[in-house]
Amino acid sequence: MNLSIDVTKNDGVANVMLGGEVDAFTAPQLKETLLPLTKEQDVVEVNLQDVNYMDSTGLGVFISALKATKEHDSTLRLIHMQDRVYRLFKITGLTEIMNIDSTVQGGM
Amino acid sequence: MMEPFDFVEVKVPAKAEYIGVVRLSTSGIANRMGFSYEDIEDLKVAISEAITNAVKHAYKETGEGEITIGFGVYQDRLEVMVADHGGSFNLGEVKEDIGPYKQDGDIEELREGGFGLFLIDALMDKVEINSKYGVIVLMTKYLHETGVGQNGDQITTPQ
């Protein structure tokens, strides 16, 4: 029940590879990683292919990160999201404002 | 009219690191009852949201405490009770948090922590909150969604 976070930076683009579960326990470390990246990089691309659980605490982190990108004029992209996780973004209306690449959705 | 059911009670410290443990218990019980993969995922999210609220609340009050989770296993449904045994928080405030993100709102007004109750309501068939002694969230999910009357605002507050 942990979250692994791997960041690789290349030419103003940060690729953030996540694996595991995002909940109230792991969300703070995700937030600590993502927010500085929105300031120092032009694009923050988060790969959620191996995230098999997320709840509102994770949604909250991505909302904070999105706000931070507006502040620092950078871009946040969420890719390879599993269907169950995507559903939560859909239910809450966040698909309307988040940059989610649904063409490469992974999962079931 | 005494309906037979099994009752499973789990008590954990009011700390975020135990939320995942309760998720595992939840999927074990729901899987045994025959819930679908999708329903089990819904249950895991809804129950985690309730516990997250209880943990945050307990932490704000005392920084410690326990959370009790009760699973009522019925023939046709699972009832889950999440009780924080801290003081009660303002129910009006809690209900204000309910609702989807509205597109016309400013991005600055996006709630970062306000989706919890909204998700519980969206993912469960019935949700009740009792705030008489601490806060108890009672959530119900039926084994077969068809034939179950469910509509409208399902949050009720018995006094």
From TrEMBL, chain A:
Pfam families: STAS. Signal peptide: none annotated. InterPro entries: Anti-sigma_ant, STAS_dom, STAS_dom_sf. The keyword Phosphoprotein applies. Belongs to the anti-sigma-factor antagonist family. NCBIfam families: ant_ant_sig. The lineage of its organism: Bacteria, Bacillati, Bacillota, Bacilli, Bacillales. CDD domains: STAS_anti-anti-sigma_factors. This is Anti-sigma factor antagonist. PROSITE patterns: STAS. Keywords: Phosphoprotein. The keyword Phosphoprotein applies. It comes from the Bacteria. Residues 3-108 form the STAS domain. Positive regulator of sigma-B activity. Non-phosphorylated RsbV binds to RsbW, preventing its association with sigma-B. When phosphorylated, releases RsbW, which is then free to complex with and inactivate sigma-B.
Automatic annotation (TrEMBL), chain B:
It holds the Pfam family HATPase_c_2. GO terms for molecular function: protein serine/threonine kinase activity. Its EC number is 2.7.11.1. It catalyses: L-threonyl-[protein] + ATP = O-phospho-L-threonyl-[protein] + ADP + H(+); L-seryl-[protein] + ATP = O-phospho-L-seryl-[protein] + ADP + H(+). Keywords: ATP-binding, Kinase, Nucleotide-binding, Serine/threonine-protein kinase, Transferase. It is an enzyme of class 2 (transferase). InterPro entries: Anti-sigma-factor_SerPK, HATPase_C_sf, HATPase_dom, RsbW. PANTHER family: ANTI-SIGMA-F FACTOR RSBW-RELATED, SERINE-PROTEIN KINASE RSBW. Belongs to the anti-sigma-factor family. Negative regulator of sigma-B activity. Phosphorylates and inactivates its specific antagonist protein, RsbV. Upon phosphorylation of RsbV, RsbW is released and binds to sigma-B, thereby blocking its ability to form an RNA polymerase holoenzyme (E-sigma-B). This is Serine-protein kinase RsbW. It comes from Halobacillus kuroshimensis. The gene is rsbW.
